[in-house]
Amino acid sequence: MSEAKGGAAAGNGARRARAGAGGTSGPRPGASAAPAPEPAPRSTPARVGTYALLLITGVLVAIAGALVQAAWFPGGLALALLALGGLFHGGALATGTTAGALVPGAAWLVTVFLLISDTRPEGDFLFGAGTGSYVFLVGGIVVAVICTTAAQMRATGASPGRVGG
């Protein structure tokens, strides 16, 4: 009798395992399907030209910012950082992608670090060792990260409100 109970119990367990292992062909009731990802934007000549223009503008803003931030210390530094914010945010709005903020940000970063490492035969640097230079460097990186993150949030459709409230 115990074999019959054991066999029946084993049979039920085997049936349950087989029924659960088969899976279902459709979504479960009440489960929402994930939206399909949007296709990547096409590379048109206008888009490539826009990115090239943003790259060149990033280099020019880096050079101008390096000169202006030291010339008029508090006002020039604020002007240089505002110009960076305008370039990065404007690039993201113009292209509608995160790359619109990343391209001029990368061009600015590479140019600034090349300007820092460049020394003249007289031993002069374009950037002095003052507080303004360091604030310009760190502030520019922070502005680039903020603008890129904001552009990424817009691209994914995330709401700017509080999380969970």
From TrEMBL:
Where do Low complexity bias regions lie?
26-35
Q: Which UniProt keywords apply?
A: Membrane, Transmembrane, Transmembrane helix
Keyword Transmembrane helix assigned to the entry: answer is yes
- The source organism is Streptomyces kasugaensis
- One Pfam family name is DUF6113
Q: Which residues cross the membrane?
A: 51-72, 92-116, 125-146
The ranges of region (Disordered) come to 1-43
The protein here is known as: Integral membrane protein
The record's section on InterPro entries has: DUF6113
